[in-house]
Write a structure and sequence with these properties.
The chain is 46% helix and 17% strand. By secondary structure, the chain is α/β, with parallel strands linked by helices. A hairpin with a 3-residue loop joins strand 3 and strand 4.
């Protein structure tokens, strides 16, 4: 079984990833990890960045028009030379990649596709706070160079963030039936975890 979990940043991705990982651990599915077999893995476990410590074990895939890369947080990125090997070496993969022809071609190779959706207002607030976190200030300081606080960032980037949400979510919704994508709603997980979980 090879699962890809998809979602826009700040939509509950880490929470859903943890849920899926726990389900795999308690099932008869053998867990395999591409990243844990890469030379960078042991080095990455020593990095003194709290945000990354949680991400070291995640098989994270970036897909663009011209490249496919695996990465650890926003610190390490490397091209995937053999995509089929990457998929077959990973039980659970995470991506934020926006729908495109390249993404479509790749994600349909997975056995199960799960997309998490969060209310765009909550994504907006969460992202506006996240860009001011020590992690983002260290690795993405240019995002807030002209901003003073999360509130001003939210006001100045409202249209862009909401547009990104619409394009990302809409791009996957358009292919829901063709790809048999299972959509999970962040708010439903909060309101009735067991009921939403039963839908997996």
């Amino acid at each position: 079984m090879h699962i890809i979990k998809i979602g826009l940043p700040k939509s509950g991705n880490f929470w859903l990833h943890t849920i899926l990982h726990n389900i795999i651990d308690y099932s008869s599915i053998k867990y395999e990890s591409f990243i844990q077999n890469q030379p960078i893995y042991e080095i990455a476990k020593t990095w003194d960045v709290n945000q990354v410590k949680e991400q070291v074990n995640i098989n994270f895939l970036d897909i663009t028009r011209n490249s496919v890369s695996y990465r650890i947080g926003n610190i390490f990125r490397y091209p995937v030379d053999d995509l089929d090997d990457y998929i077959h070496s990973s039980t659970l993969v995470w991506t934020h990649s926006q729908m495109s022809d390249s993404v479509l071609k790749i994600i349909k190779k997975f056995d199960k596709l799960i997309y998490i959706i969060r209310d765009p207002r909550d994504v907006l607030v969460s992202w506006s706070n996240f860009v001011f976190s020590p992690y983002m200030q260290r690795f993405y300081p240019f995002l807030i160079v002209d901003e003073t606080n999360p509130e001003s960032y939210l006001i100045n980037n409202l249209t862009t963030i909401i547009s990104d949400w619409m394009n990302h979510v809409g791009g996957y919704l358009k292919h829901q039936k063709y790809l048999n994508i299972h959509f999970v709603f962040y708010e439903r997980l909060l309101d009735d975890f067991d009921l939403e979980l039963e839908k997996y």
